[in-house]
């Protein structure tokens, strides 16, 4: 046991240490802290933070509502624009969105803590199970939503508000998509993702069917026949392959599976981790995997990214977080070969890279890092099976500004569409806007012969 | 080093910072601590007449308003005058004065509006060796219902009468403490002067209800579900106090009457402003009640350092210096033209100046220039009102720039007149026209 034993093992740490390591990354603000933080907001006119938010939450207004002792009203302001405002408050890279735009940065290089204030308001309302939405009279229209992730949930909720009946299909056991399976455990503690799903679904009129996958259990054409409209919020189910020698050795794993397993584990002690871990990639997934590997008790964790720091998709904050947990981030290194011993990972040979005339080029110089576990976080791919003739580009579904695909009655949003941003908050915006578009189309259509009471 | 020694109507203290008559000066224990901390003087908590002392409520005595970080901005209180036996107070005062001969010790007094009541208490106070007396005509709560405190201060004739008795029955200097709960502060000041007072002190507290509990609908502070108006003090009242001090300082009838300035003084800067507007020393209460007696050290060093920096040697060099600049509106120079100017390097682009001007003033600040968020003053519309300066969160980002004589005022299309001209001679003033005819 402990951090120095070789191999891939669980239980490297005492239980209490797991608990501390995987506690809330940003503990919630208490009431007084929230008032002080809220007081720093200038209530800007035409506020830059609001423009920077993909869901256009009226941030100055919700912060002022906190400042005046009305967190419930504040939560309504947030949920009006973003029904998953609770999760977004936890996982949004605010340092590159609202908080980057905050005018306080110009004034004193320290923005208003918008994310934590949003959490304060939404937590307050959700703790009281305060519901702000009621369904319009039922329209009798039925809409299928494929994928119970952020895009699908936001779409379903807005459709339910409009009075439509919604059926969500999801291939996995639980709803939430990446919120449930794809986020570092310390960003969403206490089973928050499921609580949020329950909160969203409590509007009524939404049925969720788990374990049903598009392309396996039904086709897009089936849905088109059975429903008045279809929204695809499929996310990215596939992962990129390394295509190097040794990739199939024991101990080479997809980071997304590791992250998902961590989220599903209660104690984290049951999640095995190597003594020396190498994570390949430069995005949020790489950081989430690396940091959590360290928190599980790995002795040495190294992120290897084939380009420079400035090219990393992971935000500056995430990189700093990794560094503070003891993760080493190395740049300009790409995998060349995974060394195996008895079928198990023993190390990874990496080759230095450089930009030559704008093109990433291997320099020929190599080195080996000893490792017993390697996580691949080199990007996800869209599994397009079952989509038939839907127009695609660059491996993603093509949609217009309202989320309409090339087929009538079919909308799409989230990571699966061209221009998807790998952000919960963007997925929510797309799902919500697609719901509005669907509602407009359904409302313009002929009224039903027998309206359902 | 600036000389901070203070001589107020013959009462000497090493600095001009006195503690006002209030809870902090209730007994020897506190006053000793205050003197140790460096306070120049103390006005002892108000004494009442001989006999069973008044009683206080046994629930909360204070209400407050706060900034977001619970910084206390305004305090109100419903505590009455001393609830300790008169002779206990007198004994302690005598001892403290003996212990601290270089500090000022003033007795605040509130007894019924009867000559005998005053005649009885004055010799007792005089015997303590106190340096002077302050007549409490100010407290607006509780005692005023019994015909004392502000009930006296609101009737100039009573003020004059009581001051006259005091001057008749004691050799001690008399300071008359005024209530701000009155329409024109000059009237009670003139009455006090007519009665022969040596000085006035102001302001006492302002009638107030700090808040209402929205669950119980009781005013705060709540005593078993009910509240009573209390006396308001603290930083929030400073502007009101400054104006009242200035009114007395510049009134021809009271000009030169010594003033002890009171009202929300929290820092050396507040004190300096009171002195500039004509006060000869200051009294402090809420700041001490909020932070403790040590704050006087900041006040002393701040005032001293500022005086050194500006070359002021003694308090006389600064007292009343702003008084000649306090004017009636009608004498303000209408040919003084300013325009707001936004420092684009300092601007953080919050847009508050724009929306304040656009929604509530003169539509003189842009929101977009060439499609980009950009806040700039439109000189053709700017009346120089200063609202944008006041709402801007960045200090010195927006400034008011006076237009030099002769330059074109783009709003009026006329060059700025170099000559002083005010409303009394303005052509739009019907009185002025009449005078001209």
Automatic annotation (TrEMBL), chain A:
Coiled-coil residue spans: none
UniProtKB keywords: Oxidoreductase
Keyword field contains ATP-binding: no
GO MF annotation list: dihydropyrimidine dehydrogenase (NAD+) activity; iron-sulfur cluster binding
InterPro entries referenced in this protein's UniProt entry, alphabetically: DPD_II, FAD/NAD-bd_sf, FAD/NAD-binding_dom, Helical_ferredxn
Domain Dihydroprymidine dehydrogenase: 20-129
Highest taxon, organism lineage: Bacteria
Positions of the FAD/NAD(P)-binding domain: 142-431
EC number: 1.3.1.1
Catalytic activity: 5,6-dihydrothymine + NAD(+) = thymine + NADH + H(+); 5,6-dihydrouracil + NAD(+) = uracil + NADH + H(+)
Enzyme class: oxidoreductase
Pfam families named in the record: Fer4_20, Pyr_redox_2
Subunit structure: Heterotetramer of 2 PreA and 2 PreT subunits.
Protein role: Involved in pyrimidine base degradation. Catalyzes physiologically the reduction of uracil to 5,6-dihydrouracil (DHU) by using NADH as a specific cosubstrate. It also catalyzes the reverse reaction and the reduction of thymine to 5,6-dihydrothymine (DHT).
Protein name: dihydrouracil dehydrogenase (NAD(+))
UniProtKB/TrEMBL annotation, chain B:
InterPro entries: 4Fe4S_Fe-S-bd, 4Fe4S_Fe_S_CS, Aldolase_TIM, Dihydroorotate_DH_cat
The reaction(s) this protein catalyses: 5,6-dihydrouracil + NAD(+) = uracil + NADH + H(+); 5,6-dihydrothymine + NAD(+) = thymine + NADH + H(+)
SUPFAM superfamilies noted in UniProt: 4Fe-4S ferredoxins (SSF54862), FMN-linked oxidoreductases (SSF51395)
GO CC annotation: cytoplasm
Domain 4Fe-4S ferredoxin-type intervals: 338-367, 373-403
PROSITE patterns, per database record: 4FE4S_FER_1, 4FE4S_FER_2
E.C. numbers: 1.3.1.1
GO molecular function: dihydropyrimidine dehydrogenase (NAD+) activity; iron-sulfur cluster binding; metal ion binding
Quaternary context: Heterotetramer of 2 PreA and 2 PreT subunits.
Family statement drawn from the similarity comment of this UniProt entry: Belongs to the dihydropyrimidine dehydrogenase family.
Official protein name in the record: dihydrouracil dehydrogenase (NAD(+))
Organism encoding this protein: Sinorhizobium saheli
Lineage per the UniProt record: Bacteria, Pseudomonadati, Pseudomonadota, Alphaproteobacteria, Hyphomicrobiales
């Amino acid at each position: 046991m402990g951090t120095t034993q070789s191999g891939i093992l669980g239980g490297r740490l005492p239980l209490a240490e797991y608990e501390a390591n995987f506690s809330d990354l940003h503990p919630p603000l208490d009431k007084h802290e929230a008032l002080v933080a809220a007081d720093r907001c200038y209530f800007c006119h035409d506020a830059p933070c609001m423009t920077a938010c993909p869901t256009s939450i009226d941030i100055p207004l919700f912060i002022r509502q906190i400042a005046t002792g009305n967190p419930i009203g504040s939560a309504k302001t947030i949920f009006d624009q973003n029904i998953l405002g609770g999760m977004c408050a936890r996982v949004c890279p605010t340092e590159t969105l609202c908080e980057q735009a905050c005018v306080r940065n110009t004034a004193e290089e320290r923005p208003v803590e918008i994310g934590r204030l949003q959490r304060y308001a939404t937590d307050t309302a959700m703790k009281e199970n305060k519901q702000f939405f009621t369904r319009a009279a039922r329209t009798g229209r039925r809409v299928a939503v494929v994928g119970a992730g952020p895009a699908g949930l936001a779409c379903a909720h807005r459709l339910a508000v409009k009075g439509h009946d919604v059926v969500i299909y999801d291939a996995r056991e639980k709803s939430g998509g990446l919120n449930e399976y794809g986020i570092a455990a310390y960003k969403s503690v206490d089973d928050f993702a499921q609580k949020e799903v329950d909160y969203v679904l409590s509007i009524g009129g939404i049925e969720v069917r788990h374990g049903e996958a598009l392309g396996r259990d039904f086709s897009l054409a089936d849905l088109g026949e059975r429903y008045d409209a279809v929204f695809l919020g499929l996310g990215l189910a596939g992962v990129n392959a390394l295509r190097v020698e040794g990739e199939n050795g024991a101990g080479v794993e997809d980071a997304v599976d590791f992250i998902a397993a961590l989220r599903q584990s209660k104690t984290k002690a049951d999640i095995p981790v190597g003594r020396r871990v190498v994570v390949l990639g430069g995005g949020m997934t790489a950081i989430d995997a690396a940091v959590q590997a360290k928190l599980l008790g790995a002795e040495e964790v190294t992120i290897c990214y084939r380009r420079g720091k400035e090219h990393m998709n992971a935000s500056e904050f995430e990189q700093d977080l990794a560094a503070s947990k003891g993760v080493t981030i190395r740049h300009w290194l790409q995998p060349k070969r995974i060394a195996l011993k008895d079928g198990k990972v023993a190390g990874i040979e990496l080759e230095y890279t450089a930009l030559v005339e704008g093109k990433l080029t291997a320099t020929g110089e190599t080195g080996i890092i000893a490792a017993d576990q390697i996580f691949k976080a080199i990007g996800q791919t869209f599994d397009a099976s079952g989509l038939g003739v839907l127009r695609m580009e660059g491996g993603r579904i093509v949609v217009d500004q309202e989320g309409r695909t090339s087929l009538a009655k079919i909308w799409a949003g989230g990571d699966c569409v061209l221009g998807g941003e790998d952000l919960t908050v963007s997925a929510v915006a797309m799902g919500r806007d697609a719901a509005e578009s669907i509602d407009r189309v359904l409302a313009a259509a002929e009224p039903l012969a027998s309206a359902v009471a | 080093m600036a000389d901070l020694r203070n001589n107020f109507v013959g009462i000497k203290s090493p600095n001009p910072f006195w503690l006002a008559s209030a809870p902090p000066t209730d007994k020897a224990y506190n006053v000793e601590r205050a003197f140790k901390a460096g306070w120049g003087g103390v006005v002892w908590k108000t004494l009442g007449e001989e006999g069973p002392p008044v009683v206080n409520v046994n629930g909360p005595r204070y209400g407050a308003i706060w900034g977001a970080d619970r910084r206390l901005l305004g305090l109100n209180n419903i505590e009455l005058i001393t609830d300790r036996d008169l002779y206990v107070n007198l004994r302690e005062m005598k001892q403290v004065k003996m212990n601290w001969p270089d500090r000022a010790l003033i007795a605040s007094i509130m007894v019924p509006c009867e000559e005998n009541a005053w005649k009885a208490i004055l010799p007792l106070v005089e015997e303590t060796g106190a340096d002077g007396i302050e007549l409490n005509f100010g407290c607006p709560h509780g005692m005023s219902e019994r015909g004392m405190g502000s009930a006296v201060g609101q009737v100039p004739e009573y003020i004059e009468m009581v001051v006259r008795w005091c001057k008749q029955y004691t050799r001690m200097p008399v300071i008359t403490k005024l209530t701000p709960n009155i329409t024109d502060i000059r009237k009670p000041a003139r009455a006090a002067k007519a009665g022969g007072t040596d000085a006035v002190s102001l302001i006492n507290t302002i009638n107030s209800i700090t808040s209402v509990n929205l669950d119980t609908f009781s005013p705060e502070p709540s005593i078993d579900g009910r509240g009573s108006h209390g006396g308001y003090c603290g930083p929030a009242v400073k502007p009101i106090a400054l104006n009242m001090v200035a009114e007395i300082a510049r009134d021809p009838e009271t000009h030169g009457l010594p003033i002890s300035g009171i009202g929300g003084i929290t820092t050396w800067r507040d004190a300096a402003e009171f002195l500039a507007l004509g006060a000869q020393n200051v009294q402090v209460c809420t700041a001490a009640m909020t932070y403790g007696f040590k704050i006087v050290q900041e006040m002393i060093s701040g005032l001293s350092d500022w005086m050194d920096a500006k070359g002021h040697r003694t308090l006389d060099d600064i007292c009343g210096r702003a008084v000649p600049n306090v004017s009636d509106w009608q004498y303000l120079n209408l040919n003084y033209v300013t325009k707001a100017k936004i420092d684009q390097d300092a601007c953080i682009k919050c847009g508050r100046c724009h929306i304040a001007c656009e929604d509530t003033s003169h539509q003189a600040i842009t929101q977009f220039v060439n499609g980009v968020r950009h806040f700039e003053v439109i000189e053709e519309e700017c009346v120089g009102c200063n609202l944008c300066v006041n709402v801007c969160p960045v200090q010195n980002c927006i400034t008011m720039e006076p237009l030099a004589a002769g330059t074109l005022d783009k709003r009026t299309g006329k060059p700025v007149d170099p000559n002083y001209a005010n409303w009394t001679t303005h052509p739009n003033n019907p009185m002025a026209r009449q005078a001209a005819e």
